[in-house]
Structures
1.
Amino acid sequence: QVQLVESGGGLVQPGGSLRLSCAASGFTLDYYAIGWFRQAPGKEREGVSCISSSDGSTYYADSVKGRFTISRDNAKNTVYLQMNSLKPEDTAVYYCAASRGCSSWPRDYDYWGQGTQVTVSS
């Protein structure tokens, strides 16, 4: 059974850090680009970051550039999203998803995790 499971969310103060994990089971992440998306209440799901399968190229939304870092550990079949200097506007449910290539469009992704809540508040 193909499955993606996110973890690492939680409540953090502004300026703090979190590391999200996206663990895959039932398939090998090596052959997939992995994207991170987020969705805040009342807003559409937006792309945050993506890492390609081929050469490990990374992409970031302008709103998170310089603060978030995506990485992958193929041996652990896991992708990470390190989030630093968090802001209240980063509050959302964060999802990871697998696709054949990086894209900012949710519809281009084949598999999705269930999401993990990130709340940035003092």
2.
Amino acid sequence: QLQFVESGGGSVQPGGSLRLSCAASGFTLDYLAIGWFRQAPGKEREGVSCISSSSGRSTYYVDSVKGRFTISRDGARNTLYLEMNSLKPEDTAVYYCRGVLACDSYLRGFGSWGQGTQVTVSS
């Protein structure tokens, strides 16, 4: 069974940085397209970024995070990362990772959600 455990969230000031991790089990991450999603208070969950399987090597970012966030994976650790720089208060949300059917702007996820990791950006 495919499972994800997210970590690395925290509280930072605007302009700060965080690196989120998503440890996968039950599947080899290299064979899977996978994405990061987030849900801000009072808002619907939205797709943030994705990376194709290692054979595809393509990435996608929603416009609001382009140039600030970087998605990557470590096959040896079976872990996905999201490097977040120049954080803004509007990035405040619970962040989740999930498998996606394809890495594209639709970010169609599948499988269960993990517990997520909270990111708070505030002065």
